[in-house]
Amino acid sequence: MRSKQAGVTLIGWIILLIPVAICGYAGLRLTPIYLNYMKVVRTLEQVKTEFKGTDAGNASVIKNSIEKRLDIEQVDYPSVKDIKITRNGRVWEVKASYDDQAPLFSNVFILVTFDKTVTLGEGANE
């Protein structure tokens, strides 16, 4: 008969693995949301490149360009209506600021806030 116990019990393993499993599951639920955000960022950067060094014209031209690119990227949310386009002196600022949520368990959700701003036009900083 041994005088010392060695190893981890089944209950010990369960206590150790539950937090790891919850974090892994949350990561799986958040992955599509972050992939969608990367598509939105790519769209805004492409629009910035399109109007680099030129006058962007008016807000409707910028909005049409964003809408086409969001359609190509198959982004449903945020829509072009959720993206704010404002004039700031000689440059245009395009801001995508939105919240997205991922269901975790039952009625528990993870809320993520995204905010990306790009500047278009002649005087835009690189």
What would your notes on this structure say?
The protein is α+β, with helices and mostly antiparallel strands and 126 residues long. The protein has one domain. Strands 1-2-3 form a three-stranded antiparallel β-sheet. A hairpin with a 2-residue loop joins strand 2 and strand 3. The termini are far apart. The mean pLDDT is 88.
List keywords for this structure.
3-stranded antiparallel sheet, alpha+beta, elongated, 126 residues, 3 strands
Q: Report the major sheet.
A: 3 strands, antiparallel
Number of helices: 2
Compressed to H and E, one letter per element, the order equals: HHEEE
Class inferred from helices and paired strands: alpha+beta
User: Roughly how many Å is the radius of gyration?
Assistant: 23 Å
- Based on CA inertia axes, which overall geometry fits? elongated
Proportion of residues in helical segments: 40-55%
| Number of discrete domains | 1
- Percent of sequence in beta strands: 25-35%
User: Mean pLDDT, rounded to whole units?
Assistant: 88
Number of strands: 3
Oligomeric grouping of the chains: single chain
Distance between the termini: 74 Å
